[in-house]
Amino acid sequence: MADSLVLAVEAGAPNLVAGGVFAQWAGIMLVLPFVAFLLIIFFGKRMKYLGAELAIGAMAIDLLWASVLFVQNMGTGLFREEHFEIASIGVFDGRSLVFELGWLVDGLSIMMYFVVAFVSLLVFIYAVGYMHGDVRVTWFFAALCLFAGSMLVLVGAPNLIQLIIGWEGVGLASYLLIGHYWEQKENSSAAMKAFYTNKVADVGLVLGAILLGLAIGDFSFSAISEAAANHAQPLEAVAFAGGLLLFLGAMGKSAQFPLHIWLPDAMAGPTPVSALMHAATMVTAGIYLMARTFPVYQDLVGGEAAREWMVPIGAITLFAMGLLALVADDIKKVLAYSTVSQLGYMMTAVAAGGYTAGLFHLFTHAFFKALLFLGAGSVIHAVHSNNMSDMGGLRKEMPRTFWTFVIGSLSLAGIIPLAGFFSKDEILATLDHEGYQTVMWIAVAGAFVTAFYMTRAVALTFFGSYKGHGHPHESPAVMTVPLVLLAVPSVIAGFLNIPGVEFGGLGNFTSWVGARVVTIGDHHPEGIDWTLAAYGLAAGGLGIVLGWLLYGRDEETQAARDLFEIPVLYPLLRQKYYMDHMALGLVGFTKGPSARAVDWINTYVIDGAVNAVGGGTRILGRFVYGGLDQRGIDMFFNGVSAATDSAGLAVRRLQTGRVQQYAMGFVVGALVLVLAIAVFN
Amino acid sequence: MSFQAWISEPVNWVYLAIGSAVLVSGVKVVTTQNVVRAALFLVATLGGTAGLFLMLSAEFVAWTLVLVYIGAVIVLFLFGTMITRAPMVRDTGLDNPKARPVAAVLSLLVFLTLSYTTLTAFGSTEIAQVGVPTDTRVLGEALLGRFVLPFEIVGFILLAALVGGITIARRDLNPKEEEERGSV
Amino acid sequence: MMVNQFLVVAAALFALGVYGLIVRRNAVMVLLAVELMLTAVNINLVAFEAVIRSSQAVGQVFAIFVITVAAAEVGIGLAIILMIFRNRQSANVDDFSLMKF
Questions:
Q1: Exposed (0-12), middle (13-18) or buried (19+): which is A529, by Cβ within 10 Å?
Q2: Using the beta-carbon criterion (under 8 Å), do C78 and B79 form an inter-chain contact?
Q3: Which end of chain B has the least Cβ crowding within 10 Å, N or C?
Q4: Cα distance from A669 to chain C (closest Cα, Å)?
């Protein structure tokens, strides 16, 4: 692929090197999980941990490999593309469309490899404890390996076709894993819902891929990026439609409004699945797609026009979904709506032109959201219930879960100096710089809502008194160690991309993901804009305070505080009450009617539309089966077979068993042949 | 060659005589109602054919025909006739009357096709050297030289026919007799 | 001598053989008709040999082979007819129509 490197240098991209043996053989990372999958299928049941060892081993090797690539990418960026031609079709003007499979090693894919491998490994380890005693542990780990392999195939795809292959693979794995407890009908229905919704979006993906690929006769990302950077006319013509169609595909996988409906229901799957797929990796595939094809959206007029449509959708997702987290009792649903909201953040950032901002938020979000989910899983495992109304006061019994959960929540709320602060701040800066002031304020409001519902979740789960019936205790080390390990990047990952700060000659996150075949011309701020940061922090702080005020107090503590404060600070207490009233009044509108309305729209309008489509499809299916298939096609085939039967009966009579008649036929045939030859010669 | 020239050659008189004998015998083979007479008319046909062969300088083939066909095959036929107890007297049931018209038409067509083909193809080809015998040594060298493989295969065929014929026509012994004779 | 005079005789014999093959009811008679056809073929072969006069008398060699194979075939054919006659007490080909539909 030296040609691509040369072109990259010409296009003004930063100096890229081809990397060493790790880049050359990076395909091993993609293949290893599938090997593990096969081994688990065949040998998993006999192993001590029922196949988990194979999964963890494969992921550990992948993590090591990805880490090496990550380190190599610091400093001078890596770029290497290896592919193998599988088939080619000669299409027109002597050009041919080639179907290639292979792997791509550049800044963006290395970042994704690392995230996928890191979070997958920790989730796998966690799942050994969480899924202990489950009826289908071996298949669970096999499906997880299938997922991890497909995700790596997706992010390592050098062309749109392989990306689609990986995309469908993760969709399949998602279906299998959401429906893990398929004995309950609602779980298998949730899996189907996820699959159908994604399928609707995949129409866009495939059509968009075809449009873009056929426009320039090449599906590979290098070719598309270069064509976009050079403002190639064929690509320009399809940029708007193709860009929007690809975005449609991304909407499905990354749960943007209105195709977000599958994600809350996907919580029916085991919590490790929610943590890995529906928080950190699979749902980010849409964002990844947008980032991978970013030159189309950035350099082409049609692509920029497409972005005008993407930003509002991202903004709606961001805000409206956050509100839904406020009325949820199930802790996983809170986190699910939170994920959708954060995906809205990422999509808005990328759509606004913030390539690095969106990807950085993807990076940090993967860590703290996976942490939050695993923490929730730890609580669920202890309490045997998903609902926060069965929880409370767990911080005493489950300290490690509590502290890591708090760290994750604070990071999510964007509190300095945790990771979420830096990534959220960069998004706000990008929105401000690109001129999307309104959206920026929506994002700030979203930060408020985020902090608010997370505080509520923390308060209801870990504070107050235990409202459940069991005896919850801290989870075993195999589950809490991953929590701690995820808490570390949730704290420090933000430092990787402080605007204007680079680590010696090693660059920072911006330069790492910027190591692409063409330069990504997104805006890089020189330093932190403290005004914007202040807005974000204020919104987050306000959310925490109000959340605490509203939910942080039980009757017990309130009564105690009452008893304590009445003799001394009565008016002040009153004032607190007034603040209470104000807070209630201020929040009342947000919490009450508005959130309920959104919930109603969510349940009846959007779900209703999807159900109608499902019902319509069922009717169509019945018609096709009954009318077309049974009557039409089956009758046709029955008719054909009946005709063959009667023809056979008729021809049977030739077989009289009499040799002389056969001889007669023989002679007649010979005569006919001779005459035929004579006539036609 | 004109008919005049042709008829004036003595060879062709001989040909006419033998040829008509062959044809008449042939007709009789397929039309006679007596089984034994059919076989004997075949003898006559084959004899005439041998004569034709002699005219065509194929002496060895002619005598092989007489020896093998007339000497052995016809005898075999007569044996077969006897064993299947075919009525040796006139039997009107020997022909299938329904098939006669069809067969006649068919054989006429065959004859016409064949003769038309040969006449158009070989209209004026003459047999150059009449009366020059074929050296038997040539035949022998050919059989054991160029055609040694077919020769061996034909030997094998005869062996197979021999063994097969015996096996097929053997009277099935009932188990007691088999044990007595000690044969399979 | 024209070669055609022999070929025509052979054609006539062949046609007669076809007639006999179709018309005759007795299995042995049918075999006789087949012999007629084989004789016709022999005449053809030898006649062509007389025309081309190849150095190795190819036509005559072929005719010898035909005669030999015909003899073998008659032997087997009669053995089969014998067996059938033993089983069914009839040599009438109309009765041998077991292999029908």
A1: middle
A2: yes
A3: C
A4: 13
Q: Does B67 touch chain C (CB under 8 A)?
A: no
Give C27-40 pLDDT, tens digit per residue. Answer: 888 999 999 999 99
Q: What are phi and psi of A105, to 5 degrees?
A: -120, 100
Cβ pair B19:C9 closer than 8 A = yes
Residues of chain A positioned with their CB less than 8 A from the CB of B106: 664, 667-668, 671
Alpha carbon distance A655, A648 (integer Å): 11
In this complex, do A671 and B99 lie within 8 Å of one another by their Cβ atoms? no
AA letter at A464: G
pLDDT > 60? residue B132: yes
* Structural domain boundaries in chain B: 3-129, 135-184
Chain C residue numbers with beta carbons less than 8 Å from the beta carbon of B52 are: 6, 9, 43, 46
The shortest CB-CB distance from B113 to any of A660, A664, A674 is to A674
With 0-12 CB in 10 A as exposed, 13-18 as middle and 19+ as buried, what is A650?
A: exposed
Bridge partner list, A159: A220
DSSP A167-200: HHHHHHHHHHHHGGGTTSHHHHHHHHHHHHHHHH
Mean pLDDT by runs of 10 across the 681 residues of chain A is 46 64 85 93 85 91 92 81 77 74 90 94 93 89 94 93 94 93 89 87 92 87 88 85 92 87 88 88 92 89 88 88 78 91 93 90 93 93 84 84 92 89 90 88 90 87 79 86 91 84 75 79 79 87 81 55 36 37 52 74 77 79 69 77 85 80 89 87 74
**In B, which residues are within 8 Å of C46 by CB distance?**
52-53, 56, 58, 61
HSE value, Cβ hemisphere, 13 Å, CA-based, for A599 = 16
Structure tokens belonging to residue A29: 């990372």
Report how many Cβ contacts below 8 Å link chain A to chain B.
Answer: 16
Question: Would you mind telling me the total number of residues written for chain C in this entry?
Answer: 101
Which of B61, B84, B162 lies closest to C64 in CB terms? B61
- On the 0-12 / 13-18 / 19+ scale of CB atoms within 10 A, A500 is exposed
Angle between helices A160-178 and A233-253 (to 10 degrees): 10
- Report how many helices (DSSP H) and strands (DSSP E) chain A contains, helices first: 29, 3
Q: Is A673 on the interface with B (CB under 8 A)?
A: no
Kindly list the domain boundaries of chain A, sorted by start residue: 2-545
- CA–CA distance, A106 with A5 (Å, rounded to integer): 11
* C-beta atoms surrounding A501 within 10 Å: 11
Q: Cβ A664–B106 below 8 Å, yes or no?
A: yes
Cβ separation C21–A653 shorter than 8 A: no
Contact A674 B102 (CB under 8 A): no
Enter the ipTM: 0.90
CATH of C3-91, one of 3.40.50.150, 1.10.287.3510, 1.10.238.10, 3.40.50.300: 1.10.287.3510
3-class state of residue A383 by DSSP? helix
Tell me which architecture the domain covering B3-129 has in CATH.
Up-down Bundle (1.20)
CA distance C22 to chain A (A): 5
A320-362: per-residue pLDDT in tens? Answer: 888 778 777 789 988 998 999 999 999 999 999 889 999 999 9
- What is the token pair recorded at A194? 């996820």
Q: Quote the minimal CA–CA distance from A90 to chain B in Å.
A: 53
Summarised one tens digit per residue, pLDDT across range A454-466 is 988 888 888 877 7
Q: Is A675 on the interface with B (CB under 8 A)?
A: yes
Token pair recorded at residue A378:
């730890």
Measure CB to CB from residue A671 to each of B102, B103, B110 and give the nearest one.
B110
